[in-house]
Amino acid sequence: xxxxxxxxxxxxxxxxxxxxxxxxxxxxxxxxxxxxxxxxxxxxxxxxxxxxxxxxxxxxxxxxxxxxxxxxxxxxxxxxxxxxxxxxxxxx
Length: 92
Prior knowledge:
Layout: E1 2-11, H1 17-28, E2 31-36, E3 42-48, H2 50-62, E4 68-77, E5 86-88
Parallel strand pairs: 2-5
Antiparallel strand pairs: 1-3, 1-4, 2-3
Helix pairs in contact: 1-2
């Protein structure tokens, strides 16, 4: 099992990015959350099977059609099994 914190930079707000992330999480059995940041970035905390997290990250790097991703910062965290579903958190 694996836990990652992702910070997605670029034109990623106002293009349906968070809902794209939710669809990808549901498709690959990933649990956690996504939210917009004041900086214009999108932040994700995700947990799941190692292979599913790897595929999820690759899908996030592609993004939805309207997004222009300049960087995806991946920070590996200690898996703690905290989540029961994947949802959209309020912006910070």
